[in-house]
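Table S2 (continued). Query chain:
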Amino acid sequence: MKVSIIGGGPGGLYFALLAKKAWPRWEITVYERNRPDDTFGFGVVFSDQTLDSFKAYDLATYERIRRRFAYWGDVDVVYKGQVMRSGGNGFCGCSRVALLNILQDRGRELGVQMRFQREIEGLEEFADSDLIVVADGIASKIRSRYADHFQPSIDLRPNKFTWLGSTKPLDAFKYFFRETSEGTIVAHCYQYEPDRSTWVIETDEKTWRNFGFDKLSETEMLPVIERVFAEELEGHALIANRSLWRNFPTITNKTWVKGNAVLVGDAKATAHFSIGSGTKLAMEDAIALFEAFKKHHDVNRALTLYDTARREEVEKTQHAANVSLAWFEHMKRYWGMDPVQFAFGVMSRSKQITWENLELRDPAFVNQIHHWFAGKVKEQGFDIDLKNPPVPMFTPFRLRDMVVENRVVVSPMDQYSAVDGVPGDWHFVHLGSRAVGGAGLVYVEMTCPSPEARISPGDTGLWNETQRDAFKRIVQFCHANSKAKLCMQLGHSGRKGSTQLGWERMDYPLEKGNWPLVSASPIPYYDGVSQVPREMTRADMDKVVADFQRSTVFANEAGFDMLELHMAHGYLLASFISPLTNQRRDSYGGSIENRMRFPLEIFSSCRKIWPEGKPMSVRISATDWMPGGLTGEDLMAATRMLKQAGCDMIDCSTGQTVPHQKPVYGRMYQAPYSDWVRNEVGIATMTVGAVTTPDQVNTLLASGKADLVALARPHLANPYFTLQASAWYQHLGQYWPPQYLPGRDQAFRNAPRERAEQQDLRIKARPASHEVKDSGVKKAA
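Corresponding output:
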């Protein structure tokens, strides 16, 4: 095989040496535009897990890197004069120049050829090569030249950053947060060799301009940054090396392969520096490409495998990186937080690190946030034992006069099992078992205020006394046999009505027996398939207002503790809010103020009827997951209007406005919207969406992303999610029905052993520590 590698960075070099070691007869040449010792930047970061991979794939390279790195286990968050330290993290820093030299030397030993100061303009220069590895970096000429084929997407993020070095030694990874008259600014810092550390300075564009960095040269900006971080630098100087201010580009490509050419490293995809090094990802790309060739010596089959098998892991990393970078883009949002919560938010920002993960690494750090959170709840007048406080999910929460005993919520889930809108035995068992299962708040499915408001013929309704009395039976059972509070969610299907049951063809119209539909505008859900709704007239609006008012009265008479209005998922009220579905030219269309006019009218009319001491919430789609849909500014404006109207909580969901949406899924994927609304609008929020474990619930609450956490599918599989979690965390304060007390006693006996076994397995599975005892670098505790 003749292999040409474009780019002499770590990704290209590491693939070259791995391939040459495995297949010595391959002819491998690396072409690099710069000189051997040219590099831009200072240090790179590797985790223990990454070092384990290096050790497994080439021991000689690993040993040379190990002898050159600075190791630390601690992360310090320095905020408002306090240092919050989290231990047990396991990272190392290494000089980028040293790393390049190690990889170059190892490659030469194995027979890799290297050509420096060689600029490559196109793939045609290697027409005789069997394989071309494109590793020419973030500004890849090859990717740009063949953009029509690779179809790159480049998202320039709004924050400004610059890469600097310093002679200041550091004993941990440090985040230095500073509030100045110009604005907030943060330094991401770590040591990479004795007496050398990397300092990445990041801030928003407004602060960047306030400092005058847009007009200052590289040498002129250094004393300004040194002044800002004078306390942290302790007299040490900052060092520049082509340290230009930039906006981070998040890069993706539709395909990574063109014939026998393949993209790796930053040419392929980027991940923000706040979750680790691009170097780490590039070298992991090299490993993945090497593994593909181990399975298939045929180039086409190997590259196809690489482009599919590696993509899932890269997209997962990019998603975590995007969540992480968004945290830093909005760090002013968290500036009012207490230091311990702020630090927990920094550590858990990407959703990859959670409550129990941190607890395993550093119990003392989690113990701080544990006691802090319980103390804040106690300050609200609740009886909390601070010597043995409950974890966040088992602390009480108040909305108006309603108090829930814990923060777990059974999300509304349509059962499609009502007859003429009347909930039957299925609903009685479904809702009753989940209330008995220990959740603090149980939602009924979206219930409709009129027959024509239903999504399907199987939906529950609340337009007559028969339905009211059936719900009353359920509420009375739940109140008598649990401490759960019950929430009625009222909603009108709008253009998504008159459809088949959820387990048939969801969102498709009924084959017969359809009823007329109304919406903000006459736009069908599925063009050419769904019914075309009638654009609502003022008379239609008056009827819907009256229907919601009647249902509100019935909900109170049935004994519900809370009322929620459904303004999400493309249903009637949501169709007014989203510009994708509201194309009206009257006073109900256009600006967000106009689009909110009718939903606010519904809310206000119900709030006047609903008892003052009982809370009301609203479910919203915080984003439509489509260009041209609800903007961030719209979201902020809409939720502020709801707060002003008397809304007590925003239930943050997303999407389902249009069928061709493009969601970005992942663990707790909707939590950033709850976080945004809660911390910028200053209203209680509930998050929902791919939350599956008690650990995640605690993480979301402790980091301040939500006040309540709703789970849907986990509660379908396990109605007793909350009771089991109470045993896991040994929370004796959780109510168990007396009929279940023998089960509680057994669960509480077994849980400590099960938890110890699980923690032992996690500890055994953790990467080995690679700390070097004779490196001369200060070690982590």
